[in-house]
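#lab-general

N.A. 3:47 PM
ok so I finally got the sequence cleaned up, no stray characters, all 479 residues accounted for. can someone with queue access submit it? mine expired

B.Y. 3:52 PM
send it over

N.A. 3:53 PM
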Amino acid sequence: MKIWRPGITAKLFLAILTTCIVLLISMHWAVRLSFEHGFIDYIKRGNEQRLQLLSDALAEQYATHNNNWRFLRGNDRFVFQILRSFEHDGPDDRRGPGPGPDDRRGPPEMPPHGWRTQFWVVDQNAKVLVGPRSPVPKDGTRRGILVNGIEVGAVIASPVERLTRNTDINFDRQQRRTSWLIVALATLLTALATFPLARGLLAPVKRLVEGTHRLAAGDFSTRVTATGADELGRLAQDFNQLASTLERNQQMRRDFMADISHELRTPLAVLRGELEAIQDGVRKFTPESVASLQAEVGTLTKLVDDLHQLSMSDEGALAYQKASLDIISLLEMAAGAFRERFASRGLNISLKLPERAMVFGDRDRLMQLFNNLLENSLRYTDSGGQLQISAEKTGHNLTLTFADSAPGVTDEQLQMLCERFYRTEGSRNRASGGSGLGLAICVNIVAAHGGQLRALHSPFGGVSIKVDLPLDRDLPGAV
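B.Y. 4:20 PM
back already:
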């Protein structure tokens, strides 16, 4: 037997519908209780007013008939006429009609519609003058009949605890049926309005659920439509951003593996060819062949070391022993170490640096940063060119600029210059470049010092690398 398990749309629909039904039933019972209590209170107040008017009118009639109740004994019709006179003449006319010659003849009349309880008129001895044959209730509403300050009788009405007249009971039943009908119609309208509302509200959620399933299946090109600026709209935007990041990371992972395999394939192929040639006797095992093999092994070693450095800098695992230091003297030291190598290739290094700039950093990592930047300029700048290194203090930051001469790069190449394994030459010839990881390591070193590295076009026709670092006074914990 298959158990029905409602989805989120059905759950939301049932939750809203159930809430509305509970509210409607609660309101129905509240209105019913209010109506019943209010209606009974209304009857009580009306009866009390009529009792007072009737007692006043009977007091006048008692005085008119020589202070005697003989005119009223068993004369229900007379009392009913007095009550009807209140309805026709208004409550201010308290004088009831006098008894006619035929008042005691004919069938008794019914009390007027405004009177909804049984009542009795008793004399000063508590003997019933007018009223039903049932006993006079002890807890009934009582109004004394006063003549010259003396109580000569009383009007007593039965307590109004529930509806007794058929017309009132029928009216109450009609109101009850009407209210239940209103509840039913309101429930139907609520269901008709709630279902499309639930579907409309959960449409973005369904799109996100479907997109998440596709994303979990490996389809990182999945995108969902972001509608509105509410929480669901922002969630859809975050989902699209997550999908874009995963797609980009997947592509980077593929490119990374392809680049590593390509970088390893070349030296391994050379090593294999050299060893097979020596094994087959094509080449002799000479110091020159050993030097060639050692060169390829050195290339592999440098590539593995660069990969290790990059992975550690990505994870923040590089050891940083920061202290307050003068970065200008450190940069001059690095440039001096490369000056002879630059001169051997016909390149000129010029420095435009301030006297001093204090930063809070690691001396060895900053020296590694400068060596990588100088090595890139040395490797990629045409002979006869130049490299200008300048520094400028802007506010609380220091901006270092490494601007070399031709050849330059395109805008598209400039955006990818700091990517891993990226080299501008299309043939990926290792003779002119390294592993393509130097700038990626530089980016991580600068970020670890709270700075930023950018690649721009150089005014000399080459590439300009700008390094922004905060000065020592802006870094917490600096000494």
